[in-house]
Specification:
By secondary structure, the protein is an alpha+beta fold. It is built from four helices and nine strands; from the N terminus they run H-E-H-E-E-E-E-H-E-E-H-E-E. The strands form four sheets. Strands 1-9-8 form a three-stranded antiparallel sheet. Strands 2-5 form a two-stranded antiparallel ribbon. Strand 3 and strand 4 form a beta hairpin. Helix 2 packs across helix 4.
Length: 178
């Protein structure tokens, strides 16, 4: 007897579907799917959240000096001419960064091996490439879900039954994070 549901798919298709559903659940906080899929996604998502809870405070902060390009009022880089060449003007800024300890780095890599990259589009639904930005899903897991579920020992998800799907009568559920 298998330790998981096969869901009528090959292993690569099943893993891709579960990764997609887990990524969407952890990014949006809820996802609507069939009951059997939700039970499998719940297993994947709860393991990732447990990793985030365990490793949420396992980092050190360092102060680093970074070169940042100076910009004018329109947001364009300021350039000067030196030795006949146009050169961008940089300012040195001190910033604090979080540096992962080894166990948190392993947890981050395990999360990123399951989660797909997410691109955030602007709020007005325009899909302009210049205005989209990539979301750090592992950082979101540590900061958002790790802090939210810190005092909880498992049971991070809830399944709400929605009834049968109209086309084939499959039982549908809303899988959401508590």
């Amino acid at each position: 007897m298998a330790g998981y549901r096969k869901l009528g798919r090959t292993s690569s298709q099943r893993k891709a579907m579960l990764r997609t559903l887990a990524t969407q659940l952890l990014y949006h906080g809820k996802v609507t799917t069939t009951e059997t899929r939700a039970k499998e996604v719940r297993r994947v998502a709860e393991k990732l959240i447990t990793l985030a809870v365990k490793e949420k405070d396992n980092y050190t902060t360092e102060t680093v000096t970074a070169k940042v390009p100076q910009k004018d009022k329109d947001g364009k880089r300021v350039k000067t001419v030196e030795n006949g060449k146009k050169v961008t003007v940089f300012n040195e800024v001190e910033r604090e960064i979080k540096k992962d300890n080894p166990s948190r780095l392993v947890a981050r890599r395990r999360m990123l091996s399951v989660l797909y990259p997410v691109t955030q589009t602007p709020a007005d639904k325009r899909k302009m490439r210049s205005e989209t930005k990539s979301v750090d899903m592992a950082g979101m897991m540590f900061e958002k879900w790790g802090n939210r579920f810190a005092g909880r020992n498992g049971g991070y998800t809830r399944m709400v039954k929605l009834g049968m799907r109209r086309g084939d009568g499959a039982p549908m559920v809303l899988l959401e994070l508590i």
